[in-house]
Fold this sequence. Notes:
The complex is a heterodimer of chains A (about 110) and B (about 120). Chain A is mostly beta strands and about 110 residues long. Chain A has no helices and eleven strands. In chain A, the strands form two sheets. In chain A, strands 2, 4, 5, 6, 9, 10 and 11 form a seven-stranded mixed β-sheet that branches. Chain A has a four-stranded antiparallel β-sheet with strand order 1-3-8-7, with no helix packed on it. Chain A is globular and about 40 Å long. Chain B is globular, with a radius of gyration of 13 Å. In chain B, the strands form two sheets. In chain B, strands 2, 4, 5, 6, 9, 10 and 11 form a seven-stranded mixed β-sheet that branches. A four-stranded antiparallel β-sheet of chain B has the order 1-3-8-7, with no helix packed on it. In chain B, a hairpin with a 6-residue loop joins strand 4 (about 35-40) and strand 5 (about 45-50). With about 120 residues, chain B is an all-beta fold. The chains are: A mainly beta (about 110), B mainly beta (about 120). The interface of A and B includes residues 45, 55 and 102 of A.
Amino acid sequence: DVQMTQSPSTLSASVGDTVTISCRASQNINRWLAWYQQKPGRAPKLIIYEASTLESGVPSSFSGSGSGTEFTLTINSLQPDDFGTYYCQQYDGFSPYSFGQGTKVEIK
Amino acid sequence: QVQLVQSGAEVKKPGASVKVSCQASGYTFSNYYMHWVRQAPGQGPEWMGMINTGGGRTYYAQKFQDRVTLTRDTSTSTVVMELRSLKSDDSATYYCARSVTMRNGFDFWGQGTMVIVSS
């Protein structure tokens, strides 16, 4: 099975900062990667799929990059509503879907 | 608008079974896969399985292969997840979520159903 490893586990940032979250897959998943944002008590929300495609309605301050085993989520000009926990997920179709352990973005 | 509405919270004893339903509306039910994902407190999401709502074929994570069953009722646009032989570490919030193909992110999620397993 494909293991997903995110870093850092926690990130403290201020409004207006640019933050970067990394996700590494244990084997090549091409670009079959999604990013989700989750707020406490809520379901995850899809923000990026196929590594870099922004889901409809998601601000352009979010961007994704990478392929193969290394992926990055970048949030430019962090806004108050951007705080929460972010998860990467692989869906290469040959392995069970799997998620990273999460990166909590906190207010500094 | 797309909605996935799940059944309410459950409290079960170890060894029992639980059924959680997910009723879809606002889109063509049989055009999407439905997944089940669970999340224990403070943990990341864990994929359990999925069902092709058109043909009914199911795919399960190996970890749950022997204990979970997904079924769908196209007349009511509902998917039901049954988990058997419950253990305390099955206590989690269970979500249904849809994807348009097997190789897509999960673009809509249910509100979640908390299942507590306790003696």
